[in-house]
Specification:
Length: 550
């Protein structure tokens, strides 16, 4: 079959002057349609032939188009006014191309120059739909069901029978202007639509037809959208810090295409990602992940899986345009485009590494809360060991608090249990010892802000406590966590080392000492509040997207 694509592109545009030649994300607007049209050649069969022609009255457009290897139809002045519809313009272009090439086309496709977000694969699918359905005409459309009103005999009337939620309303197809596929026999100076008509539904982000500056801005945002995959892990022995960090960043990357990949052992992580409603896949082995990368070809891969190997990084770098790793001190780290180790302090930035608390991504809730006034008296102590508490330090401190109550009867102990903590049935309210238990808390900051002292592990929670100015005693979950040096006296923390190796007497004496020395607690608080966390997200997002020098 002989197929002709006509791209009408007039020089005059009142709402956006010089619209079709303006640069959008690095190239003239008209070029997007030309590239889409040329890409169709790869999907057509050997029996098909494809010609592309741009109809224009503008000299600048002529220069741009000629360099792209497509035909140019110089539009007569009478077909270039505001009042002329597309029908005579397309008819003129078809007749001219048939005259030049001595042929008659079978299919004519109109593609607007003002639909830069339209994808070639969408047009390919539409042509297949057109052929298989034996339609005369297929028009690109977007389904937008809405409760709407109209005018009848001068009165406002409703266009629906019953008020329903939008997902329950009947289909309401709106033409997008992206493309119109029709048989050659249907093209004339007064129309291009045959008798047997259908619409081809396209996604909303491909349906933008640039008519206003708002449309232009929307298109630029869509074209800048990145396909981002987060590879993360969440299981008992590692905790949930990696998953929480990835979710925090994913929520900030609004407008980008986000998905997650976890291994099958990440049972608690899978549960949390499922709750978030982000798309995700579970892999059993590295080869499964490689297949996902082959298919998706992400713009950015974010690895939050601890140390990587050189072999792993070599594999993922074949498919992802940019690779960013978190908490990676493995042999593969040097192959990443950026390595962000916010939990470590290493002074100067080395090569691709970004160290220190300035890159910590604190959750929004902590930026919205204001630390409470300092209290000379300790009334409330928080005990919090993250989402999973793999070393079960919660139970250790639970028993310690019963002993502390004998010394400090007025102090209340608040235990915040993470959603993945496995021993919840053992940690219960104990009014006799002023112990209060809160499980699966959705807004941790609202509890932290009320506390005078805390006992916690050495992961991301210490940064959150610092932002709230809560003096804290720190017990590390394991040797790796003990390497996170932020939780030291220089930042307002009393660090007692690995929790399982610290005896009860040391923990008790430390807490009692802090209760009785308000001047020490105040100095700890001042050190914590001297740290600034509000720009951590911005720094990390810039590194992930590679849009600003750090």
């Amino acid at each position: 079959m002989k197929i002709l694509i006509v791209i009408p592109a007039r020089g005059g545009s009142k709402r956006i002057p010089r619209k079709n030649v303006r640069i959008m994300c690095g190239k003239p607007l008209i070029v997007y349609s030309i590239e889409n049209a040329k890409a169709l050649r790869e999907s057509l069969s050997s029996q098909d032939s494809l010609e592309i022609a741009v109809s224009t009255d503008d000299e600048e457009l002529l220069g741009i188009v000629k360099k792209r290897g497509v035909s140019v139809i110089e539009r007569p002045a009478e077909l270039a006014t505001d009042r002329v519809t597309l029908d005579p313009v397309i008819d003129h272009a078809v007749l001219e191309m048939e005259r030049r090439n001595g042929c008659t086309y079978d299919i004519v496709i109109t593609m607007q120059a003002t639909s830069p977000t339209l994808k070639p694969e969408t047009i390919t699918s539409a042509i297949k739909y057109f052929r298989e359905g034996h339609y005369d005409t297929v028009i690109s459309a977007m389904n937008k069901p809405h409760l709407s009103w109209g005018l009848k005999d001068g009165a406002v009337v409703r266009n629906y029978e019953k008020r329903l939620n939008s997902q329950e309303l009947p289909a309401n197809f709106i033409e997008t202007g992206g493309f119109l596929i029709t048989k050659r026999s249907c093209v004339s100076a007064v129309g291009r639509i045959g008798e047997k008509v259908s619409v081809f539904e396209i996604p909303e982000d491909e349906a933008v037809d640039i008519d206003t500056y708002s449309d232009w801005v929307l298109c630029e945002n869509i074209l800048r959208r990145k396909r981002i995959i987060f590879r993360t892990v969440g299981k008992m022995q590692l905790g949930m810090g990696h998953v929480y960090r990835c979710l925090t960043l994913a929520y900030k990357l609004t407008g980008h295409e986000i998905s997650f990949v976890l291994d099958k052992e990440s049972d608690i992580g899978i549960e949390k990602i499922r709750e978030s409603n982000f798309p995700f896949e579970v892999v059993e082995q590295e080869s499964d992940f490689e297949e996902i990368l082959k298919k998706e070809r992400p713009d950015i891969l974010v690895n939050d899986i601890l140390d990587t190997t050189a072999e792993y990084m070599t594999m993922v770098s074949k498919y992802a345009k940019r690779v960013v790793n978190f908490e990676d001190v493995g042999s593969g780290a040097k192959y990443a485009d950026a390595v962000i180790n916010a939990l470590y302090e290493k002074g100067e930035k080395l090569h691709n590494e970004y160290y220190g608390s300035k890159y910590f991504c604190i959750r929004d809730e902590f930026l919205e809360e204001e630390p409470k006034e300092f209290s000379e008296e300790v009334q409330n102590i928080l005990v919090i060991f993250g989402g999973a508490d793999p070393s079960n330090l919660t139970e250790k401190v639970y028993e310690i608090c019963k002993k502390l109550h004998k010394e400090e009867e007025k102090v209340h102990f608040h235990f915040l249990l993470g959603f993945a903590y496995p021993y919840k049935e053992r940690i219960v309210d104990d009014p006799e010892h002023n112990i209060h238990v809160h499980a699966d808390v959705k807004r941790v900051s609202s509890y932290m802000v009320q506390m005078d002292l805390a006992v916690t592990s050495q992961g991301r929670t210490v940064y959150e406590l610092a932002s709230m100015g809560v003096p804290s005693v720190v017990l590390a979950q394991n040797e790796r966590e003990a390497e996170h040096v932020f939780a030291g006296i220089q930042n307002g923390f009393i660090n007692l080392g690995i929790g399982k190796e610290t005896d009860d007497a040391t923990i008790i004496s430390t807490i009692l000492w802090l209760i009785k020395t308000p001047n020490v607690r105040k100095e700890m608080r001042n050190l914590e509040l001297s740290r600034e966390f509000s720009k951590g997200h911005q720094r990390v997002l810039h590194l992930i997207l590679n849009d600003v020098e750090e």
